[in-house]
Every structure is written in C-alpha cells, then in structure tokens.
Design goal:
alpha+beta, Beta Polymerase, domain 2, Poly(a)-polymerase, middle domain, 2 domains, 5-stranded mixed beta sheet, two-stranded antiparallel ribbon, 9% strand
Length: 442
C-alpha cells in the first residue's frame, strides 16, 4: 500500500492542473503541497492537501470556486466551499482521477508540520512502515477522520513517534529491526497499558508521558486536556487530539488487534494453524477489490508492467514466524516492571513522578511471543509494497460485528470494511459510561 511511482505521477498531474488555474487567476500566488502527499505517507485513497499563499485580506474562496468550475477540472457536484470552518477550505474531486483535493489559503501550520514529519522519518526509518499499516487499519474501521470520532493522520504520526522515542528495547533507527514486534507492541501500549484518563503525550525534548494536570497549564486556548491528549510539538498550547471524541473506540480496536496478533504468533497458534487466514496481518487488515482495481487502473494509465513486477520482487523474504515452544522474548515486555521506561515505572524526562501513578495500577501484563521479521537485501520500495500487498490478503470472510472486541475470538478470520453493525458511532455517547473501565492499565 506504499506509494508507487505511477501514483505519485498521477497526483503530480492533479496538482499541476489546479496550480495552473490558480496561477492564471493570481500570477504571483505560491502553491505548496503539505499533508500526507508531501511526506510520502499517503494511501491510494488519501486526499491531496494544497495551500495557496498570496496577498489577500480574506481568502478568495468564491473566486477560486468559479475558476475551477470554468475549467471543468472537478466533478460537477464535488466542489464545496467551507467558509465557516476553523480553516476555510475548498474541497473538490478531480474529474479524471477521482482524487480528492483540499485547498486552503495562507495557512503555514500544515507546511511546517510536513517538514517536522519529514525530519522524524529520517530519524526513524521504521516510521513509514508502521504508519502505512496503522492508517489502513483505522481506515477500514472509519476511525481515520476526526469528524467521525477517530484520530487524524497527524495525531497517529505523533503517537508512533512517541512510541519510538520511549520504546526501551528496540533500536528504532535501524530499518532492519523487527517491524512485526514493533507493531504488536504499539497495539499493546495504546490498546492496553496507556492511561487515556490521566496521561498526555509530549514529543518535545526527547518525548515523555505527562500528567494532564501539568499539560493543562501550558494550554492557552482555555480547553481542558482531551481524552487523547497529544501536545502539538509545533504549538505547545494546542491539543492535537482534542477533536477525537471516539478515542476509546480507537483504544478498543488497538486492544483487539493486539489480542489477535499476539495469539497468531504464539507457539500454541503455530501448532493449530488457522486455515481461514493466509497471513498474520491478514487477520486484522484487508484490502478491498475496489482499491486493488483502482491501483491497477493507475498502473495501466501512468506506468507499465515493469513497475508492477518490481513491486512484487523479493516478497518471500518478509514473514511473521512464531517463537519456539514456551520461549520468551529475548527480554521482558517493555511494559513490565523491570523495564527502565516501563509504563509502571518512573519515566525519564517526565515531570510526572511515574506513569504507574497516572494509570492507577502497577500490575502490567506482558505477552510471551517472539516475532521474527526477515529482510533480504531488497529496496525500501519493495519492502514497503510487500508489507501491504502481500502480507494482507484480499480474501476472507467478513468478521461478525457481534463480539468484535472480545479477545477470546482470536481465531476469527480477517476483518473486512466496516459494516453497519461494526463500531456504531451513533451509540458511542450512550455507551460512554460502560466503555470506560475503572482501570485502563489492566
């Protein structure tokens, strides 16, 4: 699912068409790309984010809308002007490629955030691998947008950066480290051990887990820390997760993924293989046929067969393996009491005395699995492509919505796209009291 050269070429054409219209209307305007297309962390269905810089007292939304309609670059009814939003934008869908585009004016924060993320991609080469998996995981559950209660791409990236900063054992700078283990431990942290009620995330100064009471002192907008409290490293008074009202649903699906994957790679599961699932990650992630057809259409129009063959090269060198019988990991779980950066032990760089005091429990559960991820000397593009196109099967029965978060259903087959019975967001507020356990640290 990582970007292919043909997909990048297609998106550049879309940007070029829109930029030509803007330049024709305002020759001195400066059009810049930000967001996932700028950082390279976009999925095939991701939007393109553009910002136009110019000398206007007010954003010329209506003028640009008329120009876009005149040149017929967007689908007839797709152009929408959101002039009442916090950041006024124009939304449209490109008529030729069906790529969605958001256009804003004179907003510098997006460009700065893209530059910030690029720096961390260089610092942590494993970051893109985890982001692609997690984005697809949340996308198929309708939890990848703030307005649906999910978390934004920026929030997700900051959560992964924090995880890599404070991870006690894995050297996240080494791209050959075990990605499978990192993924499982990410789900373990944010699905089971992280205390969303009392703890906030800080990226600055090497990263730390902070007491929300202390983070509130830095907030200048008058808001209290949200359930998913993430301090904006570019604007410390801003809580990036403030709009994610369904943060507990995100926690639940992370918990579910941890239960499924940790069982799938255990020695017991290896003794009784699940014939209904072709791969380990296929138990939690699926690609729809619609997305596969769309990518093939892009290949045919913007590329050739050679690029497709290149993407599939070396796919047998990447796999999940179960550990030996009754064998523990090479060291304890990073969230056990012995870990120097344990959730239940004092944190370095954190002003809170200990995260265990924030979570309300010192009893932390670890899992005994060993996941081996083997890389051959293939290119980064091949590895990223295989991580999605080969590890995630596109077939398999749809997961029953009932009991979806029941950890005992670890032998279930791959989860399809969200159905009407899965994750009923409209009933989330009614179930709010029941969805908040007494102790989130378990």
């Amino acid at each position: 699912m990582s970007p292919r050269p043909e997909e990048a070429a297609m998106r550049k054409e879309v940007v070029k068409r829109i930029e030509t219209i803007i330049k024709e209307q305002w020759p001195s305007a400066d059009v810049q790309i930000f967001g996932s297309f700028s950082t390279g962390l976009y999925l095939p269905t991701s939007d393109i984010d553009l910002v136009v810089f110019g000398k206007w007292e007010r954003p010329p939304l209506q003028e640009l809308e008329q120009a876009l309609r005149k040149h017929n670059v967007a689908e007839p009814f797709s152009i929408k002007v959101l002039d009442k939003a916090t950041v006024p934008i124009i939304k449209l869908t490109d008529q030729e490629t069906e790529v969605k585009v958001d256009i804003s004016f004179n907003v510098e924060t997006g460009v700065k955030a893209a530059s910030f993320i690029k720096d961390y991609v260089k610092k942590y080469p494993v970051l893109p691998y985890l982001i692609f998996v997690l984005k697809q995981f949340l996308l198929q559950r309708d939890l990848n947008e703030v307005f649906t209660g999910g978390i934004s791409s920026y929030s997700l990236i900051l959560m992964v950066i924090s995880f890599l900063q404070l991870h006690p054992r894995i050297n996240a700078r080494n791209p050959n480290e075990n990605l499978g283990m990192l993924l499982i431990e990410f789900f373990e942290l944010y699905g089971r051990h992280f205390n969303y009620l009392k703890t906030g995330i800080r990226i600055r100064n090497g990263g730390a887990y902070m007491a929300k009471e202390e983070m509130m002192k830095a907030m200048t907008n008058g808001y209290r820390p949200s359930m998913l409290c993430i301090e904006d490293p570019l604007l410390p008074g801003n809580d990036v997760g403030r709009g994610s009202y369904g943060a507990m649903q995100v926690k639940q699906v992370f918990d579910y993924a941890y239960a499924i994957l940790s069982h799938a790679v255990s020695p017991l599961a290896r003794s009784y293989p699940n014939k209904d699932c072709e791969s380990t990650l296929g138990r939690i992630i699926r690609l729809t046929q619609e997305v596969i057809d769309y990518r093939e259409w892009i290949i045919k129009k913007w590329g050739g067969k050679d690029s497709v063959q290149t993407d599939n090269r070396g796919t047998n060198h990447l796999r999940f393996c179960a550990g030996a019988e009754e064998q523990q990991r090479d060291s304890a779980s990073p969230y056990s009491a012995d870990s120097p950066m344990s959730i239940s032990s004092p944190q370095q760089h954190s002003s809170a005395s200990s995260v265990s005091s924030l979570s309300g429990s010192d009893n932390v559960r670890s899992f005994s699995v060993q996941v081996l991820l083997l890389f051959a000397s293939t290119s980064t593009q091949v590895r990223r492509t295989f991580l999605y196109t080969q590890m995630f099967p596109i077939n398999g029965a749809k997961f029953n919505g009932k009991g979806f978060h029941n950890p005992s259903l670890v032998n279930s087959v791959a989860v399809a796209n969200r159905g009407h019975t899965q994750y009923p967001r409209n009933s989330w507020r009614r179930r709010k009291r029941d969805s908040l356990p007494v102790s989130l640290s378990r």
